Amino acid sequence: MGRNPHYDRDGLLDTARALAVDGGPAAVTMAAVARRSGAPSGSVYHRFPDRPALLAALWLRSVTRFQSGFVTVIESEPGRDGLVAAARHVVSWCRANPPDATVLLWGAESFGREDWAAADREALESANARTFAAVHEAARQMGATDDEEVEFAELAVVGVPYAIVRRRLRNDAGLPERAEEMAAEAARALLDRLSP
User: Fold this and answer.
1) 156, 187 Cβ separation under 8 angstroms
2) HTH tetR-type domain spans which residues (predicted)?
3) Which of 104, 108, 112, 187 is the most buried (most CB within 10 A)?
């Protein structure tokens, strides 16, 4: 007889994510995951040695899911087109993955990043560096020549879409059908500054 899938790593992380969606990061404790999943506490501790490891695993799984698609989109088209597609992707991914989006909206600090193991902090830094390198490369393809211009590209594809998503998801308002196009239009307007 196979193991109960709710007690495997992903199943336990799904439970932790549900707790975070319902009550924020503070609700994600080892005991709460065991209780809600029905897993023996030993099963939880077997996969995650402590709460910081659990919180890091949850955050890293969510951010990796988001960033892999984001980087693929931005690298699929050169320059401006990739950046606009990435802005749209932020919103469409959040619409398709609201529980993971909710985790990300809290921020890594809310999930105790300072208490994570060094390897987990390094994994996050590496993933973020790859993501922002893709944004910076696309900005350079558009003609960005200094930090301020690169920052406008970051604002176009990260800051503005994040603002659209955060305000609506935090208020349980849902994302309007036109939200992706709102993000794309805002990105185009900001990116006009980089156009030669």
Assistant:
1) yes
2) 6-66
3) 187
Give me the pLDDT at residue 1, please: 43
Residues 6 or more apart in contact with residue 54 via CB below 8 angstroms: 12, 16, 28, 30, 33, 44, 48
Q: Which residues in the chain belong to E strands, given as ranges?
A: none
Measured distance CA(7)–CA(4) in Å, rounded:
6
Q: From the CB of residue 155, how many other CB atoms can be counted at a distance below 10 Å?
A: 19
Both tokens assigned to 10: 């992903």
> DSSP secondary-structure letter at 77?
S
How does pLDDT run across 123-163, given as a tens digit for each residue?
999 999 999 999 999 999 998 988 988 998 999 999 999 99
The domains located in the chain, with CATH, are 1-48 (1.10.10), 52-194 (1.10.357)
Q: Which two tokens stand for residue 117?
A: 């193991």
